[in-house]
Design brief:
Length: 191
């Protein structure tokens, strides 16, 4: 079954520029963190115990076209795209992430049922360098008055939701921003 918009033809982008809305003037800058839009390369898939299955899993779990979906001509909107697959290094995870117990922390060593890979210390150090480089780029742009948006998509058969607006349950929760973003997508027929 098709899993991403390139296969299904369901990719659609609203024609209006959301960031020109007066509600968005509450932010000096919007930083778009795009951590999962790059698929696993065949050469890198060879690190996994079953390269063909790793490539299929990557195709399913890559956030296809998010770099286009969230594109903006507004100079206040700055995308930061991680140029490696989450099956190499997941730039959205945190050190000590609970998913580490499942082999899906910053550096994936397991996925699903049966996929695994061994990561040498040298490779781990290289991947952690990529991770910290991406994290530093996002943080350096996250100045006071800015909003960071993690940009994702879902496999077509995985969710009955078009847009997921996640947030931290702490004092950084931008209630007004979440409302504006939700209403904007709802107005274009997304759920």
């Amino acid at each position: 079954a098709p899993c991403h918009p390139r296969e299904t033809g369901e990719f659609r982008v609203p024609s209006a520029e959301p960031y020109q809305s007066k509600e968005y003037t509450m932010f000096d800058r919007i930083v778009l963190n795009i951590p999962h839009s790059v698929p696993l390369a065949p050469v890198t898939a060879k690190q996994w115990n079953d390269p063909a299955t790793a490539l299929r899993a990557s195709d399913r779990w890559t956030d296809w076209d998010t770099h286009r979906l969230f594109a903006s001509a507004d100079e206040r909107v700055i995308p930061v795209r991680f140029l490696h697959s989450r099956f190499e290094c997941d730039a959205e995870r945190l050190p000590g992430d609970p998913m580490e117990t499942q082999g899906q922390g910053i550096i994936y060593t397991r996925f699903g049922t049966g996929l695994s890979r061994k990561v040498s210390r040298i490779t781990e150090a290289e991947l952690m360098h990529l991770y910290w480089e991406h994290t530093a780029a996002v943080r350096s742009l996250s100045t006071p008055g800015s909003l960071v948006v993690d940009c994702h998509s879902f496999p077509a058969d995985r969710a009955d939701t078009d847009v997921c607006i996640g947030y931290n349950e702490d004092d950084s929760y931008p209630e007004d921003a979440v409302r504006v973003i939700r209403d904007w997508f709802t107005n274009f027929g997304y759920k």
